[in-house]
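Consider the following assembly input.
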Amino acid sequence: MAGIGFSLRATTVRGSYTFASRSLVGAAVVCGGPFTIAALAMGAIAQASVADANSIAAFRVATTWLVAGVLIWTAPLQLVLTRFLADSEYLGERGSLLPNLNAALILASVSAGALGCALAASQPSLSLALRLWLVAAFVATCNAWLVTVVLASLREHAAVLACFALAHALMAGAARACGASDVAMLLACFTAGQWVLAVSGLAVIRRDAARARGEAMPAAISGKIAWRFLRTARVLPSLALAGLAQHAGAWADELVFWLDPRVSHAALGPLRASSVYDLPNLAGSLCALPGLAVFVVHGETEFADRQRAFVDAVLSGATLTRLYTLAALLTEAARSGLWAVLRTQALVWLLCLAVGHTLLPWLAGGAPSVALQVPLFQLCGLASALQTVMLAVLSMLFYLDRRGAALAVCSVWAIANAGASRLSLSWDPAYLGTGGVLAAVAACASGIALLNHALANLVRDTFMHQPAAPA
Amino acid sequence: MRTHIDVCLLLEGTYPFVRGGVSSWVHTLIQDMRELNFGLVFIGGRRADYADPTYAVPSNVVHLECHYLEDSLRGCPAQRTRLSRRRAAEVLALHAAWKSLAGRAGSSAGGAVPILDECLESLERPGGVQLAQFLYSAGAWDIMCNAHAELGSEPPFLDYFWTLRVMHGPLFQLARVADAVPEAGAYHSISTGYAGFLGALLERRRRRPLILTEHGIYTKERRIDLNQSGWFEPTRAAGSSGLSEPRGVLRELWVRYFESLGRMAYRSADPIVSLFEAARQRQVSDGAPAARTRVLPNGVDPARFARALGSRGSAIPPVIGLIGRVVPIKDVKTFIRVIGGVARVLPNVQGWVIGSADEDPEYAAECRALVRSARLEAHVVFLGHQPIAEVLPKLGLVMLTSISEGQPLAVLEAFSAGVPCVVTDVGACREQIEGRDAADRVLGLAGRVAPFADAGALAQFAIELLTQPSQWRAAQAAGLARVRRCYAQASMLEAYRAIYQGALER
């Protein structure tokens, strides 16, 4: 994510408020852009298609489950692949990007397809067409998501937004043009859109790779496949597990609510939705955006800078005194970064409290019962706000390559989120949503404690944790 | 069934893989003492530097094992480990004991220092400090930082860190080796340094005697190496003022390290043998207890060179030979300059470099380049390794231009074959030319002695001896008499036989 910060850095360096705010807005757009585009596309489909409200609602539930499934299923692969790419770039191995990406996409498609078919086969109540399109959409979205992640790690943020816009525009257009009237056809349009996203993203990646090699345009689609990225998984299993735990944790509370019959209903076969929780949760997650933007622009960039300065100093033979000074500066950057996020999120949450009563009904389209969900929305907003702090801590732990600590934090987050949400369902309904807040607090606390420990012993651990001889 | 080993030799960088004076001496020793079974423990730096043995190992060598210091830090992956406070305190006490011993001459260093004995006993064993704890524990880091704070100026920390690791790795490795070396009646280390440390470990753990023979002064040779090596070039460490020389601190660390290794060997060995009196005094000042030191010069077997002596012609060949490997310590470049100087007066003079040029190809190339640039191709010849007895009859003089020597066998061999020597004033060379004691000095000068690197003086002496037959013959006679009287190989071997018997009976 620091890549965003670096490219936006050019504007912050100027120093004036307008430039600073422009970069913050830019960061928010980049972080939240795809999310916003997807939401807009859903809205457009809802308006433009001839399907009835039930089908639209079922379609929304289906896509939500799909996105959750894709994020969790591809999480290990995503982290391993990006780590491998970062290592390759550091080592100057240019040609490894495309072959390994091809292999990763094949692995994702095959595994997603197998999982999807297995699940589909176990649900005979749904129509065959529906099941087929669900599986197809799952596979397509896995591919699209991996391509997006790789594009983002290559710092092609404008390309990400453009591809998203293109894909979702086509999706909405297709839904209108073919007169999609039931969930299966809507899913078909969704699948098509995801494939467009994947293909266009791949085209950008291939163009970048060709440019790196000095050619104008790639001559042909590279058929080469390399499985070297799997070695990263073997060597760093904690990385893959941390990714899995993080994404599972993010969806754990939703899943708990979906699976509890008291607060959820069956929307599409086995796919359930929670009329109590879904809207407030979605709206509440918007609260994460400002904090994320602030961290990306200020905290993360400065942290990454100082961390690199520390590593350079170690390698170039700085004295011990200097190393301790640089470590203290790094700790300072971490502290100020986290404070900035915390301050921003506190403001955002206060805003949320202030305007919640008007904001939520506007987002929901005016349903009267929505007013009852405002407290839940505010609690979800608080949980999302705290999640940003946790994400900032995780980002710093990954920079310091403390994979074990990151895994611990993500595990705490996943277990606490699931457990606390489950508990909160057995309490007074007024306390719904506190589960998410408690989990976020627990994850933040453990994360900060681990980060503190890592930074306090940075110089010592940098030297003493080196293996004494090459393996 | 494994054969019992009487004497286990601890060899660092010599026999049976490296050709040279020390290796030849070891070979002679083993061959002569047929009644004893020998074991060999060879310690080298890098495996790739030692190919096949260059000596045919005699049949009474019943055991040979090789260890390479490049392996010292291997096989210990990063792991979670703790250094208990008690152990950390022991380590600090050990370092303090070292500091108090440093600089103390022989008599006071002989006393018991229990903490050192404990260290030898428990290193790399369950009751003591282990390699993993040294490499990865937080306690070790604290000790390192404390030691770092006591340095004069701050070196680049990465270099300091790895210097400490590379220094301590072999100590742990040798402790493991010591537990695996087979039982022997006695252990005999042919140098201090790592072999000497291994000897100290074995003496302590196996409770068998350790004999120490030093052919050169290890610490002095290492100091020369360190001064000549390029990786102590002072550079600006990031964040330092640039006025101090931070990397000199690291060089001093290494010097003190080798001095400490020497002390460990001296503490444990009895007897401590040197080749000449000046060397013995050096040992005492480096911490060897004077009572345990003795001088046993090397010897040569006159029978080997009787034919070489007999086959000499009546004329003095205008050939000056340098018998030694082409390495910086032998200072072949000064020899080339000497030949240049002599060639101006004696145009038909020849300079032969008789020794392997494989050990330091870079230095050998520099020497050849020097020959070319001084236009001495007609005068200076690099013969490589040659059987000495065959070359000596063709030489008029043997010249040693070394900047550091112990007791060079080449000089004694030259004397036995009737060739006078012009040498530099290092090691035992002056003793060999002029005589060890009053009775020996009466025999006369067997050649000439000049300061080292003084090409002018060396050339002058060479010209003097080659152009004045009476001086040459007087030197030849003195050399023959001296080598028969003082440097007979038979008496050296008898002395060692007695030492071994004494050790085996203890």
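The beta strands of chain A are 265-268, 271-273. Ask yourself how this observation constrains the way the partners meet.
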